[in-house]
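Limitations
The structure tokens in this dataset are predictions for the assembled complex, not deposited experimental models. Users should treat interface geometry with appropriate caution, especially where small molecules or nucleic acid strands are included. An illustrative entry is reproduced here so readers can see what is and is not provided.
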Amino acid sequence: MTDLNRRGLLAASAAGAAFGALPVARARAQAANTIRIGVLNDMSGLYRDVNGPGSVVCARQAVVDSGVTARGINVEIVAGDHQNRPDVGVNIARQWIDRDGVDVILDVPTSSVALAINTVVREKNKVFLNSSAATSDLTGAQCSPNTVHWTYDTYMLAKSTGGAMVRAGGDTWFFITADYAFGHALERDTANFVRAAGGRVLGQVRTPFPGTTDFSSFLVQAQASRAKVIGMANAGGDTINTIKQAAEFGITRRGVKLAALLMFISDVHALGLQTAQGLVCTETFYWDLNDRTRAFTSRVVPNMPQGLRPGMAQAGCYSAVLHYLKTVADMGAAQAKADGAATVARMKAMPTEDDAFGAGTIRADGRRLTPAYLFEVKAPNESRGAWDYYKLLQTTPGEEAFRPIAEGGCALVRS
Amino acid sequence: MDEIFGIPAPLLFGQLLLGLINGAFYAMLSLGLAVIFGLLNIINFTHGAQFMMGAFVAWMLLNWLGLGYWWALLLAPLIVGLSGVIIERTMISRLYKLDHLYGLLLTFGIGLIIEGVFRNYFGSSGLPYRPPAELQGGWDLGFMFMPVYRFWVVVFSLVVCLATWLMIEKTRLGAYLRAATENAALVQAFGVNVPRLITLTYGFGVALAALAGVLAAPIYSVNPQMGTNLIIIVFAVVVIGGMGSILGSVLTGFGLGVVEGLTRVFWPEASATVIFVIMAIVLVTRPAGLFGRA
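Predicted assembly:
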């Protein structure tokens, strides 16, 4: 490059800087009170109805209900599809944080992806509000000062659903497990409860994830083990196919019980009550639980995709955003944007309160405590209308439902 | 106790049977692909979406028009096949002069669009579809419980595969088809309307996919991604069998179903991968596929 050219270039860039200075400054001032929330979940695969666009709808509702806009805080919500792949998820998260100024990553189903995002958000000191992933490692060995695990986890599912099955006499188990972090964690946590209650685990089979559609082969193996309970450590479309094919192979008719360790109301809807009746499952939210949950549901249903009722993962997104924005309003948007860990610490210091879940608290390890409800799926003749699917069997208070804080092995607690 | 490689023999027989059932789906889908590739020289990546459409049309017929499974078995392939004819006439036919790759990209794109549209209207969890009353229940074979419906799937798809093979190998229409595959220009010179033959062939291949979709509806959850899950395996089946080989794709379909079924017993974690391992081995040793001509 010649001297002349270089000088010309310098002049041009200096002029650009001078002209550009004003708009840039204005954008910064605007950005200081703009909170960006990135909803990262499965928009196109087997978990789409469990979270997907419904989570975005619930997050938007939380922004409206929080009333922060009136207090001068702008909230922008962006959405991304991680396709249940950790590499895709991490790429989107880094791009959002580095380039687009996203402050919060919300939802993130699929435990393998969630654990990867957990590390990224901690490294960048942003906020990770996880509603849809199940692995209890998020508040255990891999806990982070930037993360709150909002809605449920494998330990609580195992204790509630697994515990109920063992108490009902199901003392021998065979697991059909989705072969990734989530399935392994759910199987491990459930097996611990089964053994602690004096039961035995007779075997397990790990099914490739994603991409398994035919479970008959695994069901026949489970049946050959002569276990009384088949524990389904999988979710979404996998659970639906397993239940459907178990009915087809007459497994339930022979007295073998299916334990739907993680089942959402959208799964029940997809199965139909004829097939799903009698199954028990655990959720922390049900739209028809009380007046407040019904009020929340009536606010979001008009915007939900395909007229779905919100499930617990989506309601969790609502609750998490609402509490986060309360904290932001409390500490100021600029501080909240600057330090994710400090924001999460403030969130832990305040009790949570919303229509979907009622009152709750967030523990030092990032675990939000909320009651766990054990439901049984109604028979077709018990259902009084659309989406009237559950009857409540048992409520476990939040303090008892989740893993005791000392047992998780979270480094935040020891220090 | 009779054991084979540490697995009780009855369990193994059960798994062989289940493998055969899955093989039936692979065979029907790869048959359609092979027929289309043979004549059109197009790798029809829309096939998975058309399989899914077959299942959805069955659901729509039942829930919107009250027409049950047997009607769906007849009507869904016709309806979806017709949609295939329209796609071929309006879009795919413009690409015959170009490289294979364009056809692949176009059909892949159409498949994504169809899936996206269904996902937008029906979500991803799927829709319930029960087998017809006549085919519910099952038999206890001693070593396993055999649902009547699965047995029906194997028998029906065997019949369809055999009928297709006979039609292509033994009838005059089949002879035209094979001749057009060899040399389209010459066949056209003899007065056969080759473009129409091509359109109908595509429609027929698509109808086979839709028929497999109707068969699958009572077994799998009827959801927009049901085709995507299956189609990648089916492409591997076609490659292993030899592109365009009718008999090859059918035999490989059933055979690989069995191989996959056995893998699910001995090493379940690898059951999604085993077919691709076989594909790699076949491509290295016999690039034209097991039944293909080099």
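Some entries come with short summary sentences. For this one: The mean pLDDT of chain B is 88.
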